[in-house]
Amino acid sequence: MEEFYTLQGEGFNTGLAAYLIRIGGCDVGCKWCDVKESWNAGNFPPVSTDLVVQHALTYPAKAIVVTGGEPLLYNLEYLCSELQRKGVRTFLETSGSQPLSGSWDWICVSPKRDAPPLKEVAAMASELKVIIQDTTDFRWAEDNSPLVSESCLLYLQPEWSRREAMMPEIIRYIMANPKWRISLQSHKYMHIP
After folding, report:
1. Helices in the chain by DSSP H: which ranges?
2. Which residues are CB-contacts of 116 (< 8 A; sequence separation ≥ 6)?
3. What's CA 139's distance to the chain center, in Å?
4. What distance lies between CA 124 and its chain's CA centroid?
5. What is the pLDDT of residues 77-107, one digit of tens each?
6. CA dist 155 to 67, 68, 86, Å?
7. Cβ-contact 112, 147 below 8 angstroms
8. Residues contacting residue 6 through CB under 8 Å, at least 6 positions apart
9. pTM of the full predicted structure?
10. DSSP 73
11. How many whole angstroms separate alpha carbon 129 and alpha carbon 70?
């Protein structure tokens, strides 16, 4: 769908300069998605993976964030192997709804109620990032936390349009449940893509 050089805006790698590759197509379709135009892969002509790798290598940061839509709708083995062969670290942002493909240096699983993560994908997560739109989402976060490994970092992130209302709730929740951390969409505060 699109590719560009930016700073990673969310989760553990916040602030890291990275080349972002957004793949079109989504099997989840969250009502609060901020990139709904990514859902229909048919709106975007196929692009050569070699060309995407070539574009990524022109930037000084050697980190790639692959996101969507839902990137795991596609086999990402070749993309990962080509990037890693060139010394680039690979980071995946996924709902975990599809089988894992590719070799990843970091996997962020952001589980969605309409298409829960596959257990085998959640088990590989480096971080679990749960979007908090209302207080019922804290239960969803807790339901997903046993699916990840003990070393997986746990994040709660306010849904952007509800951030003012949910921020105090998230702060209280994390203070009472310190296994969790907060993730903010810092790129939106910085007004960058």
Report:
1. 49-56, 77-85, 119-122, 136-144, 163-176, 186-190
2. 96, 97, 144
3. 20
4. 14
5. 999 999 999 999 999 999 999 999 999 999 9
6. 18, 19, 31
7. no
8. 17, 18, 19, 20, 187, 192, 193
9. 0.95
10. G
11. 15
How many distinct structural domains can be found in the chain?
1
Per the structure, the complete domain to which residue 157 belongs is given by 2-190
Say if CB 101 and CB 120 are below 8 A apart: no
CATH code for position 109? 3.20.20.70
> Which amino acid is residue 118, in one-letter code?
L
Q: Judging by DSSP bridges, how do beta strands 63-67 and 17-22 pair with one another?
A: parallel
pLDDT tens for 22-58 read 999 998 888 888 888 888 899 999 999 999 999 999 9
Locate 47 and state its tokens.
């692009």
Measured distance CA(154)–CA(177) in Å, rounded: 11
Name residue 105's amino acid.
D
Asked if residues 23 and 44 have their Cβ atoms less than 8 Å apart, the reply is no
